[in-house]
Amino acid sequence: MIEVWQHLLFGFGVALRPENLGLALAGALLGTIVGVLPGIGPVGGIAILLPLTFKLPPASAMIMLTAVYYGTMYGGSTTSILMNVPGEASSVVTSFDGYAMAQQGRAGPALAIAAVGSFIAGTLSIIALTFFSPLLASWGLTFGPPEYFGLMLFGLSAVSSLAGDSLVKALLSMGLGLMLATVGTDLVTGVPRFTFGIPYLLDGIDFVVVVIGLFAISEVLVSIEEARGEVRVPIKLGRIWLSVKDFLESFWAIVRGSVIGFYIGILPAAGATIASFLSYSVEKQLARDPSTFGKGDIRGVASPESANNAAAVGNMIPMLTLGIPGSSTTALMLGALLVLNVIPGPLLFQDHPDVVWGLVASMYVSNLILLILNLPLVGLFVRILYVPERLLLPLIVAICVIGTYAVNFSVFDLQVMALLGLVAYYMRRNDYPLGPAILGLVLGDLMEQNLRRSLIMSRTGAMIFFTRPFTAVLIALSVLSILAPALLRVLRPRHRPA
Amino acid sequence: MRTALRALLIVALLTAFAGVGGAGPAFPDRPIEIIAPAGVGGGWDTLSRLTARTLAEEKLVTQPITVANMSGGSGAVAIAHVVTRRKGDAYTLIAFSPALTLTIVNKNTPYAYKDVVPITALSADYGVLVVRKDSAINNLRTLMEVLKRDPNAGVVAGGSAPGSLDHVIFAKAAKAGGVDPLKVRYVPFQGGGEALAALLGGSATVLSTGASEVLGQLQGGTVRVLAIFSEQRLGGIFRNVPTAVEQGYNLTFPIWRGFYGPPEMPAAAVKFWEETLTKMTKTKGWDKVLSDTQWFPFVIGGDRFRRFLDEDTKNFETLLRELGFVK
């Protein structure tokens, strides 16, 4: 233990050097901006900076890239809450209750709890990372394909908590997501599926393109229709700051979101988006009155925002202790290290303590920087709601187009985005929830791959799912989670007619 | 729009020829674009950026060089773009490797090497088979014997789909060792990192991948590399890793990386790039790139390179036909 404190102290020595502090601040700022802009997420932000870091010392490069990663997690919620336009896949869930809160004039508290929740979740996770990394990393490795399959199945069962009035519509929406997930080269056979000979489809459809198309474009279309050329009366803004009651109400949601997010983040093949969906679903199922979720419940913002930040930190664990990337973002960081002549692997802690401990210490620092940066921004960002729609909507579209194009520099992606925007417009007009589509897209691919991997590995067929305890528990939980509402209805005594 | 593009193209062509031939200013007289047919951070992207940097730092090219990422289908998107839009362009270089050969052989693109101008290979990584440190399998021969006796004895993990690089590395090794690769369970993962996690976590017994994916693990002593598929033993971190050749197998698998040019690239430009890139590999700056990234020199240019590619493509075709991926 004492050793860890010494290392940490040494790390702060690295992180608090003026140039590294400056880089962390620059990274945090850039990350926030990139996070706020829809379409450009952590991968995009880091990709922009990556060539610049070729010239920095490895520790400084990592400090800057991590600050960007972290900043995007903070910034991602802003447009979700204010405009119902998620900045990235991991803040889709935030829009369910966040946007509803904004509509009720509570945009300020929603943004504030997102920042506070992110800070608490981030800090808790960094503490866990500081002291238990090696232990946690080996736990993450015990997750094989059958466990992932169980987890993804459990994730899909969250659909019941995303459904509005009609479970059937939620399932149809999820079906759309699952179908989109099948497009591209099938990993298990190497055969292209539903690509129609179009090379752009060989790698599948990027999450960002789908998120922007489904949420942002359709939101703009609906807004235009509802405005019908009339000037919108701005939503009355209530108090900007978080009340003590708001905070107490969300406290346990933040803690639970942190724990769920952190553990999912540690798994090399799961990440922030899955974490946000799962923690939201858990929170709703634990709530005494789940009907307030989706209608502006502050816990519905606190929980996914905590989870996605905790997952971002959890992601660093397999990267730092084993040199295994846990997400496309950490894969980029590992690539950066390699170019800087630092070989990421089990010896990273030993051979490059300045990189590892400097990075760990800088995570505490950038977390604080981001909180300080983001709280005053709440007051600024809510003013977006005063921008007239005739200015705001074209601006949103412009940003979406740039963001989507920046993913692969492909016009084809823009066409897919526009098409999905129309599909989502139809869905919104007919009360199909959009969340399940994203859930299906994110989990579908992983669930299918891990199902088939498990079956290839297994010499006992499907029994592999029941002989591994963790998988069996997850499958049982999924079944329970799907059947729970129906069971409760049967078991609970009928309400007496009033 | 289309006519405007065509006009632009004609202008580009004219300037290209003007630049290459004659007594005008020395070629290249315009900014260069290197296309990395994958996202930022991958092998193609790193090669492109480090090449651009070294060419500039060693003052071999004074014109600005930009790197553009054009990901999709393991090179399929980029080759389609170059063939249809950049014919005769002397200022574009595109990164490639055996991953593109496999894209071509698997018919995931209608184009082939004859449609573009391969210029030179610069560096290489090599295929490896890896087990956990605590595995009872100590060398390539033991692995092959175990698998020959019972093809179900192990699970092979790789970072890509069957028929693409990681799988083909294993398949080629299995054939050299007298094992039917189709009988051995191969589990594909999304990228080398996930496959490595599966090996370390015990879901797989053998990992088939490129040597650069396991640098850190080899250094940290968590894995054992059964064999590296290079011609001679490599230095650095790999100095204690035996080659397959040493262990009595006729088996090499270089994962070379290099550049090709657009179709009908002017001959003078092809010559310029081949010479300049080869010159670059002899500089101090490139030495540092190789030692930083743990890549190995693999320089073949010009006609020799094109013959090598023909040969390589044919070999992959034969292998994939036997595996049933190519009809």
Helix and strand topology:
The complex is a heterodimer of chains A (498) and B (327).
Chain A: H1 2-15, H2 18-36, H3 42-53, H4 58-83, H5 92-103, H6 107-141, H7 145-156, H8 159-162, H9 167-182, E1 184-185, E2 192-193, H10 207-227, H11 244-266, H12 272-286, H13 299-322, H14 328-339, H15 348-351, H16 353-381, H17 389-408, H18 411-429, H19 435-457, H20 464-467, H21 469-491
Antiparallel strand pairs in A: 1-2
Chain B: H1 2-20, E1 32-36, H2 43-57, E2 65-69, H3 76-85, E3 92-96, H4 98-105, E4 117-132, H5 140-149, E5 155-158, H6 165-176, E6 185-188, H7 192-201, E7 206-210, H8 215-220, E8 223-228, E9 254-261, H9 267-280, H10 284-293, E10 296-301, H11 302-323
Parallel strand pairs in B: 1-2, 1-3, 5-6, 5-7
Antiparallel strand pairs in B: 3-9, 4-7, 4-8, 4-9, 4-10
Characterize the structure shown.
- The complex is a heterodimer of chains A (498) and B (327).
- By secondary structure, chain A is an all-alpha fold.
- In chain A, 74% of the residues lie in helices and 1% in strands.
- The model of chain A has no long low-confidence stretch (mean pLDDT 87).
- Chain A has one domain.
- Chain A is built from 21 helices and two strands.
- Chain A has a two-stranded antiparallel ribbon with strand order 1-2.
- The longest helix of chain A has 35 residues, at 107-141.
- The radius of gyration of chain B is 21 Å and the shape is globular.
- Chain B has 327 residues and is of the alpha/beta class.
- In chain B, strands 1, 2, 3, 4, 5, 6, 7, 8, 9 and 10 form a ten-stranded mixed beta sheet that branches.
